[in-house]
Amino acid sequence: MIARVLSAAALGAAVTTRLGAAAPPPPAPITIRFAAVVGEQPFACGREYPGIGTAGTTITPLDFRLYVSEVALIDRKGKAVPVRLAEDGVWQRQGVAMLDFEDGTGACSNGSAETRLAIEGTAPAGDYAGVRFTLGIPFALNHRNPVEQGSPFNVTSMFWVWRAGYKFLRLDVKATGPVERLFVHLGSTGCVAADSMPASPAVRCQNPNRSVVTIAGFDPARDTVIADVAALFQGSDLTANQPKTAMGCMSAPDDADCGPLFDRLGLAFGERTSGGQQFFRIGRGGAVGASGGGAR
Amino acid sequence: MSRRVGLANLLGGLVAAGVVAALVVAPAPGYRWQLPRGFPVPKVPADNPMSVAKVELGRHLFYDPRLSKNGSFSCSTCHDQGRAFTEAKATSVGVTGEIHPRNAMGLTNIAYAPVLTWANPTMRALEPQALVPMFGETPVEMGLAGMEAIMLDRLRKERRYQLLFRAAFPGPADPVSLANVTKAIATFERTLISGESPYDRARLGDRTAMSPAARAGEELFFSENLECFHCHGGFNFTGSVDYVGKGLPEIEFHNTGLYNIDGKGGYPAPNTGVHEITLRGEDMGRFKAPTLRNVAVTGPFMHDGSIATLEEVVDHYAAGGRTIAGGPHAGVGRTSPLKSPFIGGFELEPGEKEALVAFLESLTDRKFLTDPRHANPWTQPFDSVRWGARRVRGAAGGR
């Protein structure tokens, strides 16, 4: 599993004392830990989770991966300080990180044994009290031929070629209701080719569907970003699916099943603006972070 | 196999960040197209030049069920040579039994297509398009999502591939990569060129090639009364075409009034045409006009296979749009506000419908449908020495 990187705050403190306040603080390694949960339970392939959504459905995970980018820490003055993501050739590239909560066991059989529960990078040493990131891949990187890209842009499960991009979030579950499988595939829709550029599918998209997530009070040395499956589904009835649309929500604007999910992802859906994202929240101290970071 | 190893293998075609491989007007040096007389040279992406070895590799991959989740499906399952690389089903069924909302398209002269599939303006090249059936999940076709490492491992074990990948992609890097799989398949697809139908022979002076009825049908097809040629014009009988020297490629999508479920020109979801991709209201029901070469063997017709015969296709156009009397898709296509102005309807004299159909049948190129160069290589002998095997005792003869 991931080796805990040096506590950024400790390292930052040491560096600041040596250089004094005038010079910009040099970058120090930083780890932003993530953990997936389903309500109060840690997320795990092969487990059943009862009581999900408005109809109290029991779900079993099939897949859970996502891309984040534009990662920044928020300092005490409220200023966003970009985190420079490490390039590890597998999980992180060009400022984009893939997080992978499934471990290929149980019903997650199309997944991979490796998990990824952290973002690694560097940021100027400092006293941080918040984190901000975008759930999604920036436009400039989202519409390239995926097989010509390095990892994590070449993970076929995250390809979304017919929509000319990637799935930013993939959360697939089995359910015990009349709807047996539900897919949450988030990505840009309404993408059109620039007609003057026949050579490449250079596109602009009506619905970028990138959610900017800010978590206040987040101390990277101590806290964990929690992605909560139960919170995401909280407003959804998992026993129903709009006819003639994808099972669950594949970001189609005419699929009303996306409405409550987008709301909780912090995204507008049609005319409806979001009441604020509720998918990610802060995990204080080591408690949940330890189960997410070390259990598997 | 672990993700780390799998991913490393996929890095075969790694290119500089942010650069989209550009299509360039580049006839590949050293490759000889075998084109029908009068056919232009197809455009080929600069980073995937044609080669004989790549065509042979691509043909093997196109016919290889190892490219599916459970080894039961290849591209040819839905794209059958005898039917001009389409299939008899109204809409396709994928490896998991999931039903595709659309009809499998023929691949006749696909090298000249500047835009691919029924109604996706962002789908511009064969290389990335091949990823859709392999890895797509809306719907699942070959079901390979997440299985790329397993699939590439299967290919590495095949002796023919050990020779063909090396011959097609010489160099020190491991040639068995996903990028190279798509490049080879695209290269094979570009050779699926058809231009030796009775119509073509007649054009080159053989007065007996077409029946009198077919000739009469040709006149109707190109008449301002029927307007067919406006959307199915040019040497490839489609308005969406590109080739070396063309200047600007032409990309067209049309609403032919096939549906009008709400009086506002609506098509039944999810087959709303270009609208499904762009979400723009004006794109409702707009589809690519397929080439009409070999059309007589590609039925059932239209994007959803909802018309069984060519006679009924003509009826649809004659009526200026289809009327569906009852059921969930009921509506009068003729009155669709989104319908193309070229779908005005027309009246035919006795015998003219038959003539028009006879003309469409004269576009069938029998040689193309049976050409062994396009056929399943796995049932053909394999010349391993030609593809680089050392000439030692016992080495020849393939797998």
Name a few traits of the molecule:
heterodimer, A: 296 residues, mainly beta, ten-stranded mixed beta sheet, six-stranded mixed beta sheet, 5 helices, globular, B: 399 residues, mainly alpha, Cytochrome Bc1 Complex, Chain D, domain 2, two-stranded antiparallel sheet, disordered N terminus
Report on this structure.
The complex is a heterodimer of chains A (296) and B (399). Chain A is mainly beta and 296 residues long. Chain A has one domain (27-283). Helices cover 12% and strands 36% of the residues of chain A. Chain A contains five helices and 20 strands. In chain A, strands 3, 4, 5, 7, 8, 10, 13, 14, 17 and 19 form a ten-stranded mixed sheet that branches. In chain A, a hairpin with a 4-residue loop joins strand 4 and strand 5 (80-82). Chain A is globular. Chain B is an all-alpha fold and 399 residues long. Chain B has two domains: 2-193 and 374-395, Orthogonal Bundle (Cytochrome Bc1 Complex, Chain D, domain 2); 196-237 and 248-364, Cytochrome c-like domain (Cytochrome Bc1 Complex, Chain D, domain 2), CATH 1.10.760. Helix content of chain B is 28%, strand content 2%. Chain B contains 15 helices and four strands. Chain B has helices at residues 3-10, 52-62, 75-78, 126-129, 131-135, 148-156, 159-168, 178-190, 198-203, 212-221, 228-231, 274-278, 310-318, 352-361, 366-370; strands spanning 23-24, 44-45, 323-324, 331-332. In chain B, helix 2 crosses helix 8 (178-190) and helix 13 (310-318) packs across helix 14. Chain B is globular. The model of chain B is unreliable at 1-27 and 394-399 (pLDDT under 50). The chains are: A mainly beta (296), B mainly alpha (399). Chains A and B meet through strand 15 and strand 16 of A and helix 1, strand 1, helix 4, helix 5 and helix 8 of B.
